[in-house]
């Protein structure tokens, strides 16, 4: 079995920085296979994404984070600004804001 290859087309179909309010983009569906966690691929993806956000005139990312990934984004300097509803009913996700200076 071969390892999956990462391709990031424009515009993003899944791993995404879509337009949001003003110059803040919304990050949707950034996932790393459990076997690859800790390898640096997630860190590389987020750094690349921040570069793209800046290049396209954005200044930050709004992230409705999986609770298990919150600490990952906090290490980048994201700050928790609230919560958003999720499924199943009653579940919430941390809402984070990550500046892209």
Structural overview:
With 101 residues, the protein is α+β, with helices and mostly antiparallel strands. Helices cover 21% and strands 29% of the residues. It has one domain: Gcn5-related N-acetyltransferase (GNAT) (Aminopeptidase, 3-Layer(aba) Sandwich). The chain contains 2 helices and 5 strands; from the N terminus they run ββαβαββ. Strands 1-2-3-5-4 form a 5-stranded mixed sheet. A hairpin with a 6-residue loop joins strand 4 and strand 5. It starts with 15 loop residues before the first strand and ends with a strand.
How are the SSEs placed, and which strands pair?
Layout: E1 16-19, E2 24-28, H1 41-55, E3 60-64, H2 70-75, E4 79-85, E5 92-99
